[in-house]
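Why do we care about 3D structure at all? Because function follows from shape, and shape follows, mostly, from sequence. That is the central idea of this module. The next example makes it concrete: a single protein chain, its amino acid sequence, and then its structure expressed as tokens.
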Amino acid sequence: MKTKSLITISTLLSAILLSSPVVAATDEQSLFIDEMVHKHGFDKDKLKTVLDQATVQEKILEAIARPAEKRLNWTQYRKIFVIPKRIEGGVKFLQENKKALEDAEKRFGVPPEIITAIIGVETYYGRRTGGYKVLDALATLGFHYPPRGKFFRSELSHFLQLAREEDMDASEPTGSYAGAMGVPQFIPSSYRHYAIDFDGDNKRDIWNNNRDVIGSVGNYFARHGWRPNQPVTFPASNVSEKHQSFIDAGLKPSMPVMRLLQAGIETDANSMPGAQTSLLEFETDQGNEYWLGLHNFYVITRYNHSHMYAMAVYQLSQEILKAMQNKAS
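And the structure:
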């Protein structure tokens, strides 16, 4: 018989016959509650009442097992984000929030088109912020997804602390299947560390206040080391099998551009031979593309640890900028 997709955690706790994974989950929940009581001063009974409102959702477990970055090649992935409607939406968002974006650039050094593109990729400029309750998502993944249970229990801890700090009802906020919230899709730890009140109303509202959203994204990038007025990426060519070790070195820039040039790789980054870079491979329908990932490219991957994600943000930002310039001319 097919298992129901929604099961209340309280039902699981009171069930007489439990499968071993569920037993493990309830054990993890008991340990989690004890830790929250002793480490963060939560009331045990009240916390249990909050967690008993959560539901375990099979859809969440299915979604996290099949992220787009692992299912699609670059051609398919790019077609989701770098498209006319999202470019047009970016132009509109940039125009409507011009002052806030300019203020964010002055304070954090992050260009308006980059902040806009992040918001465009994450939630289509606030249109798609996710319909899962954050409590459901984090409880499901924290207690029922062993591969990353520790991470999501940590995020659940941050979320409960955030709800207490911001005087929110923990059962109300909604977000993605992974517990990312609001227009910029901040996970709870990011909300606590990087979300800011950018309009001076003493609230950090990343659901309904675009100025706070923009300031929070700018702050996130600045805190992760964004370098103003520095390039993000350059295309590379003449890459062959002999350069595989450069690709295998990973996302983080770890080689001077000069080293790649000396190895025969061709790129417009030859004007900055000492800059640290990475060599990135993108599988497309027509073969592989290669790009250099500079420091600011790596900063974008701190938002989502995927080279395809960062490239989608960058290319969308450039298309938005181009469309803005065409409007102005």
